[in-house]
Design goal:
The chain contains ten helices and nine strands. The protein is α/β, with parallel strands linked by helices. It folds into two domains: 168 residues, Rossmann fold; 90 residues, Pantoate--beta-alanine Ligase, Chain: A,domain 2 (2-Layer Sandwich). The protein has a six-stranded parallel β-sheet with strand order 1-4-3-2-5-6, with helices on both faces. The chain has a three-stranded antiparallel β-sheet with strand order 7-8-9.
Length: 274
């Protein structure tokens, strides 16, 4: 695996590559990230990963400065996974001047995650479009764990007519159901034992809907009550349409239930397609 930090060096290295598959990350990699790298290999000839903690998608009171940087360990994992090239720019490489041009997603950026993290998806869309322009892949792989992010980027790519196929990777879970996340390391031992409740609650909603329950608001409210009664601080539990994350319309069978809730320090997000 060859590591590049400068844009010209990366572009030169990729100039004669055939079908490029790109997997952007913020580092602190776990088995979920590695599963995306493995999945990427089935979609092209050259797999390019990136490691970059993007300041633009963090709010003023979020964990940008504390976000774990584990570069050496990440490089070992990527090389073992068969990644061909790694783009690991510094902030001066990716933002050599103040970023005054941005991608502003539609109103969905202000709902669900966006309601509690204002500006987050603006920062995500801006950096991803910039990375797309640098890497120029034919395929890009993103995890479904960040479901709203996947939808925003898929729709951005379609509406801007980018020649890139967006592939979603299934969420990788621990044996007890907890979705793997770079922020799980913030959990104490007691919180880690409690954390799988989030997946169990979402699984219960899925089972109820598959069983014929149509009162989504009742299911959402009951889920919030259960979580908060066990020490969580829940931002939302929401049943939405998979295509656009809007409130379900009658007869729409392609649904997803999403949730975000704080357990101690970390704010955990998860979702299950129905």
């Amino acid at each position: 695996m060859i590591i590049h930090s400068s844009i010209p060096d990366l572009r030169a290295a990729l100039r004669n590559c055939d079908r490029i598959v790109f997997v952007p990350t913020m580092g602190n990699l776990h088995a979920g990230h590695i599963a995306l790298m493995t999945q990427a290999q089935a979609h092209g000839d050259t797999v390019v990963a990136s490691l970059f903690v993007n300041r633009l998608q963090f709010g003023p009171n979020e964990d940008f400065d504390k976000y774990p940087r584990t570069f050496a360990a990440d490089c070992e994992k990527l090389e073992a996974a068969g990644v061909d090239a790694l783009f690991a720019p510094g902030e001066d490489d990716l933002y050599p001047e103040v970023q005054q041009y941005h991608v502003d997603p539609p109103d969905i950026q202000n709902q669900l995650e966006g309601k509690f993290r204002p500006g987050h998806f603006r920062g995500v869309a801006t950096v991803v479009l910039k990375l797309f322009n640098i890497v120029q892949p034919q395929v890009a792989v993103f995890g479904k764990k960040d479901y709203q992010q996947l939808m925003v980027l898929r729709n951005m790519t379609r509406q801007l007519a980018l020649p890139i196929e967006i592939v979603g990777g299934d969420t990788v879970r621990a044996a007890d159901g907890l979705a793997l996340s770079s922020r799980n390391g913030y959990l104490t031992a007691d919180e880690r034992a409690e954390a799988p409740r989030l997946y169990r609650v979402l699984s219960g909603i899925r089972a109820a809907i598959r069983g014929g329950e149509q009162d989504f608001a009742k299911l959402e409210q009951a889920a919030v009550i259960e979580l908060d009664s066990h020490g969580w601080q829940t931002d939302y539990v929401a049943v939405r349409q998979q295509s656009d994350l809007q409130v379900p319309q009658a007869g729409n069978d392609s649904l997803v239930v999403l949730a975000a809730s704080r357990l101690g320090i970390p704010r955990l997000i998860d979702n299950i397609e129905i």
